[in-house]
Each structure stands twice: as C-alpha cells, then as structure tokens.
Specification:
Elements: H1 3-10, H2 22-25, E1 32-36, H3 46-69, E2 73-79, H4 83-93, E3 99-104, E4 107-108, H5 113-121, E5 136-140, H6 141-151, E6 158-165, E7 171-176, H7 181-188, E8 195-199, E9 206-208, E10 221-226, H8 230-235, H9 239-249, H10 255-258, H11 261-264, H12 271-280, H13 286-290, H14 300-305, H15 312-325, E11 348-349, H16 350-356, E12 372-374, E13 379-383, E14 393-394, E15 401-402, E16 407-410, E17 420-421, E18 426-431, E19 435-439
Helix pairs in contact: 3-4, 3-6, 9-12, 12-15
Bound molecules: iron/sulfur cluster (SF4) (2 copies).
One iron/sulfur cluster binds next to helix 10 and helix 12.
C-alpha cells in the first residue's frame, strides 16, 4: 500500500506542531526531508528521548518518507550539546550515504521550521510560504517514528511528553492519548497544592486550569507551575489590559524588531511599527499591519526583547484573529529575501531564555536522561479534533468493546483531517460532538 494510505489509515499527524495530517504531506515530491529534533522550547526533552531511545525507528521512518516523496537527501537535526546521542545516531546512519546528521547551536527558536530550513539548506522560505516552496519537507522526529510504526501496522495511540516543573519526579511520560493531565501530574508527584499546567513549552504553550484536559497527539509537554508564577500571570493577562499597557509604556525602542527571528530572516515583519499603529492609530501602510501574519508567535519579543515587558506577540495574534474573522486573506509578494546582516549576532541562547522565564530551577538538563514512565489509565477521553482540519466522525457506538488500535473516528468524506484510534482496551461509555470516552 502507498505510504500515504498507510499514514492516513493509522492516524499519523505532525507530533511537533499543530498536528497537520502527515499523509497529505507525503503525497508530494521534495528534494530534502528533515527530521526536526531541535526541540528549542526550554524544559522539553521528549524529542531528545525519541532520538536517544528510538533513533533507529526515526531513521527508518525518514527513509520511508524519502522513498515515498522521491527525496534524494535526508537530514536529522539535533542540538550540538547532545554529544553522546549524536554519536549513537552517527552509528545508526553509518553507511547511509543520503542521510546525514545536522548539529545545531542551542538557541531559541532554532526549531522553528523557517530557521531550521535556513540553518540546514542556507535557503530562506519566502514570506507567507511553507518549507515545500523550496523543496523541503520538515517532520518532527516523533512523527517519523510514528511513520515507521504505522508501516508496521500500529496506529498512533500513545505519545512521548515531558512532565516537569513543580513535581518530585520530572519525567518523560509515554502517555496513552486521552489520559488526563491530572493523572500524569499525579504520576510525577506534584510538590505544591495550588498549581496550573502549561501545555506545550513555556514560550508558546498555553495555561490550562482544567486538569481533566486530555493528552492529544500534539501534547509535547506539561509544565507544572505555581498559580502565581510570573509566566502564568503573563500568559493569562486579558487583551484589553495588554493593549492599555502597550499604549502607556511602548517607548518605540524597536528592540522587538531588532531581535525578531522572522525579521532577521529578512521578512518584512516590524513588530515595533505594528505596536506604533495600535498605540497611536497612525496611518501606516496597511502592509505593515497585515504582516502580523508573518509572526510565528515565538514569544521572543515579549519574553526577552521588550524592556517594558509588553507583548507584541499577543498583539500580532489578535490582529491575525480579527483580520481572519473579517474575511481578510493576507497577500505576500513571495519574493526571496536575504537575511539581515546582524542575524548571526542576535541568536538568543536557550539558557538565557530559561533564566529570563525564571524556570532554571526546574531544569534537569544536567541529570539526563529523565526517567521514563508509562500511563495506565482506567479511562481515556479522546478528543475528536486534535489535528489540523475538520473534526473526526465517530464510527463506534456506546457500549461497544474496543481494543487498543481499533478505529473509533473517521475523516469525513473529502475533508482534511485525521483518523482516531482507541488508546486502551475497554468499553465506549460516552460520545458527543467533541469526544469519545473509553473505560477499561
Ligand atoms: S521592544 Fe517593547 S517598548 Fe520597544 S518598541 Fe517593542 S514593544 Fe515597544
Ligand atoms: S512573536 Fe515576536 S519575536 Fe516572535 S516572530 Fe512574532 S514578532 Fe517576532
């Protein structure tokens, strides 16, 4: 069977981003396939775990994608500081002339596809573009592992994630899809009572108050923090307050632009000008505002660059939201850009970000590898929308018995989406438009 169909059947989606269905990506031709193991968000270590423990499977998945897409070159990107893992991986790829290892400097956001592609190929993805525009396909390393597992007949029912922060046992968790955050945090033993979780990394992740929230195919990390941690307070500010703060305090120093990774790439993104427009209502050319769509929401401007602790990222996010809601489609010239002259000198080391976020005390980088634990939940709640595209359609009924790996929800005919499979053996106890619950 063509790889495209296998991945569709087994529900493989991008494990490192928004969960774009992988079967759509492999249906095209590329020159280079990149395995992204950069994992630039501070405190996340699951990609490192995957490369270290499942490196052979990652490489086999990469080879499958290369065969299917006609790519002549495969690259696995990993941080240079992980020396022993790199050595191990070098042995795995020894003799494979078309596959190489690329060692990255430890800065943020080196895992951003645009930055990663530039590091590896020297080419710039055009404004508003995607890696395929310059012949590249980027897949997270866990996605590549899932490709290999799918070829062996295994649907995506588990994922590796990092649980860290205010817990006694920071760990890599192999979580069944649908396990609650509560169960995972309890497994790692919280050290305080009044905590919240940040899902994803501290830079781009979101605060989650409801600990019954289930793990999805794209949950890369659970960061447990005190409710009054500065990062939690910052991430939960209301937009009205953020705008008021900007009006009162933006001094137009332009540091947000100077350090913006997408501006440094050569794109026409000037966060300080967008702030000027929002703050003072000046009549700037409309392209300045619509270029908020070029923002990757990496958060470097709000966490590191801005001396007034303002949030150009949130302002950009809001502009995009409002313009899309008004039916506006951004237009970009697609012209090829050259990186700004100072790009190399403005790469912010991950350690400084961690420090700035006041998260260094939770970092267990020196104690690696983190212990690995597996979840064994009595119940899972599988969300019907946990990928890019439309909500999946249940194909099971209440009281039906299912085994791990059985299909429980299908992609609606002719739509973009992903199949879902049971992650435990049990009985279907609840179905609505958003979820399917299975009890052991
Ligand atoms: S860095 Fe902060 S203060 Fe300076 S221009 Fe940007 S938003 Fe305004
Ligand atoms: S979040 Fe800020 S630093 Fe990051 S791309 Fe957007 S404007 Fe630039």
């Amino acid at each position: 069977m063509a790889l495209e169909n296998v991945l569709r059947d087994m529900g493989v989606v991008g494990a490192g981003g928004a969960g774009f269905p992988t079967h759509i990506k492999v249906a095209n031709k590329y020159d280079v396939v990149i395995g992204n193991g950069a994992e630039c968000e501070p405190l996340l270590y699951n990609d490192k775990y995957v490369i270290e423990r499942q490196g052979e499977e990652v490489v086999k998945g990469l080879e499958l994608v290369m065969q299917s897409t006609g790519a002549k070159k495969g690259v696995i990107a990993l941080k240079k500081k992980y020396l022993s893992i790199a050595e191990k991986l070098k042995k795995t790829i020894a003799g494979k002339k078309n596959i190489s290892l690329f060692l990255l400097k430890d800065y943020y956001p080196v895992g951003d596809e645009f930055i990663l592609v530039q590091e590896i190929t020297g080419k710039i993805i055009p404004e508003g573009g995607i890696p395929p525009d310059i012949g590249c396909l980027v897949n997270n390393v866990e996605t590549l592992r899932n490709v290999y597992m799918a070829e062996k007949g295994n649907a995506v029912t588990r994922r590796a994630l990092t649980c860290i922060g205010e817990v006694k046992k920071p760990s890599i968790i192999i979580a069944r899809i649908g396990t609650s955050f509560r169960e995972i945090i309890n497994l790692c033993e919280p050290t305080i009572e009044d905590f919240v979780a940040i899902v994803g990394g501290p830079m781009m992740g979101k605060v989650v108050f409801d600990l019954d929230t289930p793990v999805t195919k794209i949950t890369s990390g659970i960061l447990v923090l005190p409710r009054d941690h500065p990062l939690v307070l910052k991430k939960t500010l209301r937009i009205e307050y953020i705008i008021k703060q900007s009006k009162a305090a933006c001094c137009q120093c332009s540091y947000c632009t100077d350090l913006c990774p997408r501006y440094l790439l050569g794109h026409e993104l000037y966060p300080h000008k967008i702030m000027r427009q929002i703050n003072f209502g000046l009549d700037l050319p409309y392209e300045i505002i619509q270029n908020a769509f070029l923002c990757s929401e990496c958060g470097l401007c709000e966490v590191f660059a801005c001396p007034m602790e303002l949030s150009p990222r949130i302002i950009n996010q809001k502009i995009k939201e409002n313009l899309l809601a008004a039916g506006y489609q951004p237009k970009f010239s697609g012209k090829k850009e050259n990186p700004r002259e100072l790009q190399d000198y403005r790469k912010i080391p991950s350690s400084r970000i961690k420090n700035r976020l006041r998260l260094d005390k939770y970092d267990k980088d020196g104690l690696h590898p983190l212990p690995v634990m597996e979840t064994d939940p009595d119940q899972v709640e599988i969300l019907l929308k946990q990928h890019t595209g439309v909500t999946s359609k249940p194909v099971v009924k209440i009281d039906e018995q299912v085994n791990e790996g059985d299909l429980i929800a299908e992609i609606p005919e002719g739509k973009l989406g992903a199949r879902l499979h049971a992650s435990i053996r049990g009985r279907i106890t609840y179905i609505d438009e958003e979820r399917i619950v299975i009890k052991k």
